[in-house]
Amino acid sequence: MTTLNVEGEQDERYREAAGLYGAALERLARAYEADDDWRRDLLQEIHLALWRSFAGWDGRCSLRTWVYRVAHNAAASHVMRQRRRNAPVLVTLEELETRSDGAEAEASAGQRAALERLLGLVQQLKAVDRQVILSYLEGMDAASIGEITGLAPGNVATKIHRIKALLSKRFHEGVRHAE
């Protein structure tokens, strides 16, 4: 196979993946990055990583699993670079659970404000927990999430349950503080 054919296949795989999962990648970037400018940079990083990854994709997992694995890895790398630059405070589930809610009361109780509150809580999670819940919210099952994260499906299911319960509790605490 010539280099031109390999690059053509790489480009075609990327176009297919971007077409099928572009909106999901935008949602993933939004969940990982709150700042608009940094979010655009992250999305570009994800797309570049995805395109590069198809040079070595051997098809041993589904296209969907591959796209999410590459995207989450790119996002996690972005978060680590940002963390080194800005030293933001990321917390474990247990810390988030026991931490008092310091978020300002929302002026609007509309859907956008609710989504922003929820994304804010998700952004506080460590990378693996964020990856699990975002994959779940994209409709992936525990086995698929396990393929992406390297966790056993049973562990994924447990994490999903704990994260959902915690986010629900923290979200509702924020609503009460806003009233």
3D architecture notes:
- The protein is mainly alpha-helical.
- It folds into two domains: about 1-90, Rna Polymerase Sigma Factor, Chain: A (Orthogonal Bundle), CATH 1.10.1740; about 90-179, Arc Repressor Mutant, subunit A (Orthogonal Bundle), CATH 1.10.10.
- Helices cover about 75% and strands about 0% of the residues.
- It contains eight helices and no strands.
- It has helices at about 5-30, 35-55, 65-85, 95-100, 110-125, 125-135, 140-150, 155-179.
- It is globular.
Radius of gyration: 18 Å
Percent of residues in helices? over 70%
Structural class: mainly alpha
% residues in beta strands: under 5%
Topology:
Elements: H1 3-32, H2 36-53, H3 63-86, H4 93-98, H5 111-123, H6 127-137, H7 142-149, H8 153-178
Helix pairs in contact: 1-2, 1-3, 2-3, 3-7, 5-8, 6-7, 6-8, 7-8
Quick recap:
76% of the residues lie in helices and 0% in strands.
Please tag this protein with its features.
single chain, 179 residues, Rna Polymerase Sigma Factor, Chain: A, Arc Repressor Mutant, subunit A, 2 domains, 76% helix
